[in-house]
User: Fold this.
Amino acid sequence: MIIIKDETDTKEAESYEGVRILLLTNGNMNGDAAGAALRLRNITGGKMAVAILGHSGESLREADATYYLDDPVFADSDCRASGRISVALIKKVFPCDYVVCGTSSAEGSPSSLAARIALGCDMEPVFNISGIDRSDDGSLRIIQNGTESKVSWKAVFSVSGGRWPEAVAEIREGRHLNRIDLGLGVFSVGTKGSKVLISKEVS
Assistant:
């Protein structure tokens, strides 16, 4: 993930040529999601960044960059607020081609987070994949719920089992980003950004 906030950040973002892959996780690494992100990196030759929702946690030895989404107001974010944080990171810091969701919130699965990120970033949501490969025409071929299909450019994945390469988790130094870095207000994240709005009560 790369955040573009000033001239230096812009140069950092532009230095990543080719395919960019983002693995979104929390403090505990999801092995299947990590393996899927590594598989994408291996078959595309792209750069892979790991974004961790929290001030600490495991990144990957194979990662090209690590980002910690580190702000006290991010605590207790539900899927809606976590989606906003992730979308802001992608738009401001790491404009990527593929996202792999390896985390969930208290009220949402990786698939629901993937759907929110896809909507916010105009990407294709692809749920419950168990395999990724390269087609003869250069496109990505996936296995989803036991069925093969192709995926367009710019996609967000949630992972469900499968045989993936082993990605090595390790604690790494990284860039810490708060809500100001991401351009987010206190009412869009955490418990304030997670409130369910009641439009109409029916008795």
User: Anything to note?
Assistant: The chain has one domain: 7-193. The longest strand covers residues 124-134. Residues 1-16 have pLDDT under 50 and may be disordered. The longest helix spans residues 31-44.
